[in-house]
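Technical annex, item 7. During the second reporting period the consortium partners agreed on a shared format for inverse folding records so that results from different sites could be compared directly. Each record opens with the tokenized structure and is followed by the designed sequence. A conforming record, contributed by the partner at site C, is shown below for reference.
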């Protein structure tokens, strides 16, 4: 994608005015509601049905990200060949089947592999949905990934509320709600399959013998984007994996409700913060935005470490955390939208899913640090919050002008 300033930058209204973008945004919203309806409660669920230590629980919940990250290398390349619409439908069907299976079984020997298999759906849905959104937005349409982040945030606000209500009824209800939402998303995408097929751009037949994801990994700028994304997700993963365990130790039976409130507030703020984030993006460089975002993460960890389970202190941390999230989490997608050729967007976005290695390593590292002491955990995480900043400031990345 061109990076010249002569390309007209589409605004939020321009993008939402496009019917295909609206359909894909709605798909992203429903998928997010379904995913976050169960994901934040997996650690609590495993703590209830198993005797696994925190680090092992973190490994299993983080395995979704590991499978999704490694598998997306192939998933992105297949997307460019077989078609993003077909891969998107396949991934959503797999999500629905796995959630339905989790609603019907309770034996840990079956539950644990099913949780790992959720990563298989992630590897298909992530690259295909992002490629379609990027193609629908076109040049200058990088704000489509802030729209995507807004739908993810809205889903992350609604999903945990529905999940908390379902979890209070039964574990099966938790997964049944997500299965129904995934099924709705399948129907929506299937109904719009013709328009998505017209939109799609595939790798030319002459190049289909190559694994095009290797091209993305040979791009020096993209490698920097990927490194920064892994570091950011390693820190961000703490909110969904280790923080619930910390709250469980601080608040006991109040933890599910308390975490649902905290997570919902953070998600609503993540949605609302995209407007000031877009305003800031027009006036500062990406490295400057990254510095503000890293500071937000660090302040949040310091607030949570001193909260003692008090809601108002937890919410103060959420205010700072969401500043970091709103600025940092869409950043890799924005830059990849600029860098990737249309026919290889699936491969580039698929390779970018390697950032989920951070979601895998984060819960393991966080669980081990939490075992060693609360202050040890929060102090180390506050310091790690700044790890991505030097990478995003690298001159070779060429982001100083934006």
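Designed sequence (site C submission):
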């Amino acid at each position: 994608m061109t990076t010249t300033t002569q390309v007209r930058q589409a605004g939020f209204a321009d993008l939402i005015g496009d019917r295909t973008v609206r359909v894909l945004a709605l798909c992203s919203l429903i998928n997010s509601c379904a995913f976050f309806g169960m994901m934040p409660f997996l650690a609590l669920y495993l703590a209830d049905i198993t005797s696994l230590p925190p680090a092992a629980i973190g490994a299993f919940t983080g395995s979704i990200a590991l499978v999704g990250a490694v598998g997306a290398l192939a998933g992105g390349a297949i997307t460019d060949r077989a078609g993003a619409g077909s891969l998107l439908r396949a991934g959503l069907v797999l999500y629905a089947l796995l959630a339905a299976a989790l609603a019907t079984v309770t034996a840990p020997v079956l539950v644990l592999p099913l949780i790992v298999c959720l990563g298989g759906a992630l590897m298909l849905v992530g690259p295909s949905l992002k490629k379609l959104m990027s193609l629908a937005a076109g040049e200058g349409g990088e704000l489509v990934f802030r729209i995507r982040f807004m739908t993810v945030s809205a889903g992350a606000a609604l999903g945990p509320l529905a999940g908390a209500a379902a979890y209070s009824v039964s574990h099966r209800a938790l997964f049944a709600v997500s299965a129904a939402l995934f099924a709705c998303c399948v129907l929506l995408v299937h109904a719009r399959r013709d328009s998505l097929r017209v939109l799609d751009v595939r790798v030319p037949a002459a190049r289909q013998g190559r694994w095009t994801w290797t091209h993305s990994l040979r791009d020096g700028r993209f490698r920097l984007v990927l490194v920064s994304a892994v570091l950011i997700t390693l820190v961000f993963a703490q909110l969904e994996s280790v923080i619930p365990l910390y709250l469980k130790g601080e608040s006991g039976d109040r933890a599910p409700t308390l975490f649902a409130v905290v997570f919902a507030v953070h998600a609503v703020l993540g949605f609302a913060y995209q407007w000031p984030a877009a305003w800031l993006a027009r006036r500062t460089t990406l490295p400057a935005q990254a510095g503000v975002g890293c500071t937000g993460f660090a302040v949040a960890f310091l607030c949570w470490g001193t909260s003692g389970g008090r809601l108002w202190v937890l919410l103060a941390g959420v205010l700072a955390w969401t500043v970091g999230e709103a600025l940092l989490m869409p950043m890799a997608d924005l830059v990849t939208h600029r860098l990737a050729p249309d026919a290889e967007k699936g491969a580039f976005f698929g390779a970018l899913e390697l950032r989920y290695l951070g979601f895998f390593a984060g819960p393991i590292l966080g669980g081990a640090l939490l075992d060693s002491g609360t202050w040890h955990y929060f102090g180390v995480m506050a310091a790690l919050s700044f790890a991505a900043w030097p990478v995003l400031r690298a001159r070779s990345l060429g982001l100083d002008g934006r």
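Residues 1-6 have pLDDT under 50 and may be disordered. The CA atoms of residues 45 and 171 lie 7 Å apart. All partners now use this format for quarterly exchanges.
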